[in-house]
Design goal:
The complex is a heterotrimer of chains A (372), B (328) and C (314). Chain A has 372 residues and is α+β, with helices and mostly antiparallel strands. Chain A has a six-stranded mixed beta sheet, sandwiched between helices. Chain A folds into two domains: 234 residues, P-loop containing nucleotide triphosphate hydrolases (Rossmann fold, 3-Layer(aba) Sandwich), CATH 3.40.50.300; 122 residues, Nucleic acid-binding proteins (OB fold (Dihydrolipoamide Acetyltransferase, E2P)), CATH 2.40.50. By secondary structure, chain B is mostly helical. Chain B is flat and about 70 Å long. Chain C has a two-stranded antiparallel ribbon with strand order 1-2. In chain C, helix 2 crosses helix 15. Chain C is globular and about 75 Å long. The chains are: A alpha+beta (372), B mainly alpha (328), C mainly alpha (314). The interface between B and C is large, with 121 and 117 residues.
């Protein structure tokens, strides 16, 4: 068990004559037993961050501490860390038992009997006891995944690192393993850093999410905080599917002026905005609702261009009446509400659900209200 | 509430330096840590694997070449040992004035280019034939490549017999077609081409294997797309397929040229001695003859350097090409 | 010849544009030409070997009195040339095996070491590249460029004195040549072995090696427990390729053993001078000798043709 601290961690790769900063001054503190999901688009530096913790990449600057101990220069084999790889990286010439025993043989002085006992224990936990004498080539994808996890568990390390471990599974297995992983992590209570690009995994599995973009840490917070109180426009757009709608607006007195609509603000929202004039208005698709008529100050006349029925709800691509064709935003409305392409509909964008971001820095200046 | 990135207070560099002093290897300067720091974390630990082979190759290949260069600058001949105190380019001047050297250089060049071209052409033809969904593919391929597994010494015996004036297969075939017999190995104007033909026999299978790998790497869709576009088979190969075999051509050419430079074994065995038939003396045979028959060590070294430069002229650009494509 | 076959293939398949994929195969006239080409080439590659084989069984009279490619008849048939060739080459077979086998095994092992150390360990690519380039360039060095120093080098190494206990056992001291050949072939075979193994190790899963590191294994243990057990297929390729190269090489034997009359003379050295004398050439004997010298490599080639092809194609 351990705490893991990343302090100003930076990774610079040489690129031809110049340099590329893959990870830029990242600070993360993980408490003992925490499950942290690191998420971001591909190339954001999330895997590099994980590999620096593992010791597979050198650290250009900054410091990584494991339970208070500085580990920058400790070789991966001495870090007491176990990692689960995207490809599982099982040793193809060894049986499941040998695969799982390998790490204990190499990193501990345990006797053969003790190793055997721990391997048997771990296979019990993972439900793969009957596979012990098979080779990886005789296993299904899901079974390999379990062996890979078992190989990490049996080591009883201070920290688990997982690099997109579920991305090679089909959708059904993936959701099963997601639950299984959460159960395991609860049970073992080992500090875990989990890298993924899948936001469902990020939202459902982690105690906290760390969101990276272009090497920079955008936000570290619980999943719901990231969803409802995004630190900036990137986080707001990255978390949530379909993603948040954004409109470039300018503040004119107490009104936001967009290209085809005006949106009046209340005094308390204006307080948050302060003296910023270039703004981005964000609204999540599910917060847009159908309204009877366009009489409210936050109701708008629109045209539904495309309707995608999903059963439980409809995803509707709508545009403001005055907007050119094709310039749409998304609303999700209940599956029983009848909306057809071409319909003229009135929608409400409630003020308490809007987010406002600084148009130049992207920082959130106002987040939605939550009833609590 | 949200926890945004707060910019780290302490500079990263200071932290990294702190790390080095905390190195468990102990206090003070550690040469191993310094080497690893400069070359990468596994440099020292991995050297137990690559360093001994590297030293062996470095000594025997590159050390020997430098030594050879030195010897070529001396006047070392007959028995005794070279005198390194008096170095000059006398041997190179002698080579340029030696018409036998110039002839050998020309022969080497002609053999190199001619052999490579005909072998590539035959190999490509074979590869295209074999690639066309044929039966017995494995058997045919095995037989086409078979001469490659034989020693130059062995193939020289076969071809000495094939080219025999009275009883050789080739003369018997052409005389049965109504042509006169040809003294393949005795006529200085012909012998180079005869040798080229024999070497082509030995290495066409190799070119075929390389081209076949190249052809198999081309997706089937390319053939089909060309067909749908209405290209004839010839035009399909010429315009679509062969241009994609550039990589195969380059690597096969380099290997073939190097084999041609090494054709010494073949020529020596053809006659069972240092003196190949008139008209086919190449640098490789002349070098060995000067060294081991005439004991003109320094002169032989100078010829060896000429040969080495020729090889370098072929391999250098190839290595650079591989390097720029990230294959090194 | 090949061009004809393909020309006809082209016109024939154009008449059948409907089967775009099937057009590459199927049309009869074109198949006839295709197989004519293929079997014509088969004859081209086999005639020298066939002619050598039948000739090796002929008496001297049979050699001059019959076509070189017809089999011997009753009166011109003899095993005599094979017998003579075997008497002359027998010790050469043993001598060649004495250095070819150890040199093959050692160069393959060292090549695997070198490739592993360069490919699967973590140090800066900009320093790896020149080392690798030196290995690759080593493949292409004409041996002539190192012959004189090589002879000088071996003349300064006091092999004969340091191994005197062997000569005391009744072993001919010419056998120093075998030791020289082993070391020399290892050194000059290493580049190709290294490059072959490197291409194999480059394709090995990087994550698997990283997993082994995180499992606590050192670089040496990873080689011993992961990489070496998984190198089997490449060892087959390298061993086969190296064996044929070393067995077949004449130049080093000429320089390091020198005379075919030496007790340690390898088979290629004896064969190169076999059947040539002042009275003329005994082709039947030369052919029989050629086959005896080729037998080991031919056997290896026929048994492991796929691996050999992979070795040469890389």
């Amino acid at each position: 068990m351990g705490t893991l601290e990343l302090d100003g961690v930076t990774k610079v790769f040489p690129d031809g004559d110049g340099e590329v900063v893959a990870v830029d001054d990242v600070d993360i503190e993980m408490r003992d037993g925490e499950f942290l999901v690191v998420v971001g688009p591909s190339g954001c530096g999330k895997s590099t961050t994980l590999r620096m913790v593992a010791g597979l990449e050198t650290i250009s600057s900054g410091e990584i501490r494991l339970t208070g101990k500085h580990i920058n220069d400790v070789k991966p084999q001495h870090r007491d860390i176990a990692m689960v790889f995207q490809s599982y990286a099982l040793y193809p010439h060894m049986t499941v038992r040998e695969n799982m025993a390998f790490g204990l043989e190499e990193s501990t002085d345990l006797s053969d009997d003790e190793i055997d006992e721990r391997v048997t224990d771990a296979t019990g936990t993972m439900g793969i006891a009957e596979l012990l004498d098979r080779k990886p080539s005789d296993l299904s994808g899901g079974q390999r995944q379990r062996v890979a996890l078992g190989r990490a568990i049996v080591r009883d390390p201070e920290v688990f690192l997982m690099d997109e471990p579920l991305s090679n599974l089909d959708a059904k297995l993936r959701s099963e393993m997601r639950t299984e992983l959460q159960r395991l992590q609860d049970e073992l209570d080992v500090t875990t850093m989990y890298v993924t690009h899948d936001q469902t995994e990020a939202m459902t599995m982690g105690d906290r999410i760390a969101i990276l973009d272009a090497g920079e840490l955008q936000q570290v917070a619980t999943p719901l905080e990231c969803y409802h109180e995004p630190a900036n426009r990137f986080v707001a757009g990255f978390i949530g599917d379909p993603s948040m709608n954004f409109f470039d607006v300018r503040r004119d007195g107490d009104t936001l002026v967009g290209s085809v609509f005006d949106y009046p603000l209340s005094a308390s929202t204006l307080d948050d905005v302060g003296d910023v004039t270039d703004l981005i208005l964000g609204i999540r698709p599910e917060d847009i609702s159908l309204a009877g008529d366009a009489t409210g100050e936050h109701t708008f006349s629109t045209v539904a261009e495309v309707v995608e029925p999903m059963g439980d709800e409809n995803t509707v691509y709508i545009r403001f009446e005055d907007a050119p064709e094709g310039e749409t935003f998304i609303a999700t409305v209940g599956g029983l509400q009848q909306v057809a392409a071409g319909d003229e509909i009135t929608v409400e964008i409630p003020e308490k659900t809007i987010h406002l971001f600084d148009g130049t820095t992207g920082k959130a200046v106002h987040n939605r209200e939550l009833d609590e | 509430m949200t926890r945004n990135t707060d910019t780290g207070g302490d500079s990263g560099d200071a932290v990294a330096d702190g790390g080095v002093t905390e190195n468990p290897n102990g206090s003070g300067f550690s040469p191993i840590a310094a080497l690893n720091d400069r070359f990468g974390s596994d440099f020292v630990e991995s050297s137990q694997f690559w360093l001994p082979p590297f030293l062996l190759v470095g000594l025997f290949v590159y050390g020997a070449i430098i030594w050879n260069l030195l010897i070529s600058l001396t006047d070392f001949n007959s028995f005794g040992s070279p005198d390194y105190s008096d170095l000059d380019f006398e041997m190179y001047a002698r080579a340029l004035a030696d018409s036998a050297f110039v002839d050998a250089a020309v022969n080497t060049f002609v053999l190199l280019v001619g052999f490579t071209l005909v072998t590539l052409a035959l190999g490509l033809g074979l590869a295209i034939l074999v690639d066309r969904n044929i039966r017995f593919e494995n058997t045919l391929r095995t037989i086409y490549l078979l001469p490659m597994s034989l020693s130059f010494v062995v193939t020289a015996q076969f071809w000495a017999w094939m080219f025999n004036f009275n009883n050789g297969v080739i003369n018997i075939v052409i005389s049965s077609l109504g042509f006169g017999r040809v003294d393949w190995l005795g006529n200085p104007d012909i012998v180079l081409w005869a040798v080229m033909f024999a070497l082509m026999w030995q290495f066409a299978g190799y070119a075929m294997v390389v081209y076949l790998a190249g052809l198999r790497a081309i997706p089937n869709e390319h053939y089909e797309a060309a067909k749908v576009d209405g290209a004839s088979t010839i035009r399909m190969y010429w315009r679509v397929i062969i241009p994609q075999l550039k990589g195969s051509t380059i690597s096969a050419s380099v290997v073939l040229m190097v084999f041609a430079l090494k054709a010494f074994d073949f020529l020596y065995s053809l006659v069972g001695g240092y003196r190949p038939p008139n008209g086919v003396d190449i640098l490789a045979t002349k070098m060995v003859r000067e060294a081991y028959q005439a004991n003109e060590w320094a002169y032989a070294s100078a010829i060896a350097i000429a040969l080495f430069l020729m090889a370098l002229g072929i391999v250098g650009p190839y290595l650079y090409y591989q390097y720029t494509r990230g294959n090194l | 010849m090949n061009d004809d076959a393909r020309t006809d293939g082209g016109t024939a398949s154009e008449t059948d544009p409907g089967a775009a994929a099937g057009a590459l195969s199927g049309v009869d006239g074109y198949r006839v030409f295709l197989y004519l080409g293929l079997f014509g080439m088969l004859a081209f590659f086999l005639v020298p070997i066939e002619s050598g084989l039948v000739t090796s069984f002929k008496t001297s009279g049979g050699v001059s009195g019959s076509f070189p490619f017809t089999p011997p008849t009753g009166s011109t048939f003899t095993f005599g040339k094979w017998g003579t060739a075997f008497d002359a080459l027998g010790r050469g077979l043993v001598n060649s095996a004495l250095y070819a086998i150890p040199a093959t095994v050692i160069s393959a092992l060292l090549g695997s070491f070198a490739a592993y150390g360069i490919t699967q360990s973590n140090w800066k690519p900009k320093y790896k590249a020149p080392i690798l380039a030196l290995f690759v360039a080593g493949i292409f060095i004409p041996y002539q460029a190192v012959l004189v120093p090589l002879a000088q080098f071996w003349s300064t190494v006091p092999l004969e004195e340091s191994l005197s206990f062997l000569w005391g056992l009744g072993i001919n001291d010419d056998y120093t040549g075998i030791i020289k050949l082993i070391v020399t072939h290892v050194a000059y075979g290493l580049p190709i072995c290294t490059v072959l193994f490197r291409s194999y190790y480059k394709n090995m899963s990087e994550e698997m090696i990283e997993a082994a590191r995180l499992d606590g294994a050192s670089i040496r243990r990873i080689y011993r427990r992961i990489v070496l057990p998984l190198s089997g297929p490449m060892f087959a390729v390298v061993l086969i390729y190296q064996f044929t190269q070393i067995w077949n090489d004449l130049l080093f034997t000429l320089v390091l053993v020198q005379t075919e009359s030496s007790a340690a003379a390898p088979i290629v050295l004896i064969l190169a001078g076999l059947g040539t004398s002042l009275e003329g050439q005994d082709f039947a004997l030369r052919m029989a000798g050629a086959f005896i010298a080729a037998l080991p490599t031919l056997a290896v080639y026929i048994a492991f043709g796929e691996e050999f092809a992979e070795g040469v194609a890389t």
